[in-house]
Design brief:
The structure holds two protein chains of two kinds. Chain A is mainly β. Chain A has strands spanning 4-7, 10-13, 19-25, 31-38, 42-51, 54-57, 64-70, 73-78, 87-94, 103-104, 108-112. The chains are: A mainly beta, B mainly beta.
Chain lengths: 113, 115
């Protein structure tokens, strides 16, 4: 258990509003990731971070931005939420041990109406 | 680019029966392979992993998986299913590219265990 928390755990928002999801970890892991989980698609990578202020896009990054100002926090922002962004969002972390397994947070269920 | 295929989105077994969840992968470099389990309304928990060395790997809750390079497979098995095994299972492959390692997931297999 990598001590990962996500907030909020549930959120309902309206189309067009900005939304920020927070991931907080206590393990001092270097790498952090944001995924979305949708039925029939498994988990898909949105963005990831390889250090403070160092981020890059994943396979489904359109409509999302991220920021990492501290090792322990990784924020995911939907600038203008759309109904297609209704999903469950998971944060994950990994250290630098070289075996690449990722540890997951409990998820945030986001509904865009 | 790597990819993962999980055959069967739903698998149903009787309690006490063998569990077999199939995973095939493609990767241009030697992969690291993982199985994760997800219980309802929870995050993903690592079941087991293959990195290098012994091709039969054992994980938590009595699960094991065998890496077969020639078949590009990493099937998950458990000799005797228990009701508590009902969950969704994800196979994933990890390859380091550029700045970080990234996991590519299969679409998942939901395991149902019946009495």
């Amino acid at each position: 258990d990598a001590g990962i928390t996500q907030s909020p755990r549930h959120k309902v928002t309206e189309t067009g509003t900005p939304v920020t999801l927070r991931c907080h970890q206590t393990e001092n892991h270097r790498y952090m990731y944001w995924y979305r989980q949708d039925p029939g698609h498994g988990l898909r990578l949105i963005h990831y971070s390889y250090g403070v202020k160092d981020t890059d896009k994943g396979e489904v990054s359109d409509g999302y931005s991220v920021s990492r100002s501290k090792t322990e926090d990784f924020l995911l922002t939907l600038e203008s939420a759309t109904s297609s962004q209704t999903s469950v969002y998971f944060c994950a972390t990994t250290g630098t041990g070289g075996t690449y397994e990722q540890y997951f947070g409990p998820g945030t269920r986001l509904t865009v109406t | 680019a790597q990819s993962v295929t999980q055959l069967g989105s739903h698998v149903s077994v009787s309690e006490g029966a063998l569990v077999l969840l199939r995973c095939n992968y493609s990767s241009s470099v030697p992969p690291y392979l993982f199985w994760y389990v997800q219980y309802p309304n929870q995050g993903l928990q690592l079941l087991l992993k293959y990195t290098t060395g012994a091709t039969l790997v054992k994980g938590i809750n009595g699960f094991e998986a065998e890496f077969k390079k020639s078949e590009t497979s990493f099937h998950l098995t458990k000799p005797s299913a228990h009701m508590s095994d009902a969950a969704e299972y994800f196979c994933a492959v990890s390859v380091r590219t550029g700045t970080a390692s990234k996991l590519t997931f299969g679409t998942g297999t939901r395991l149902q265990v019946t009495l």
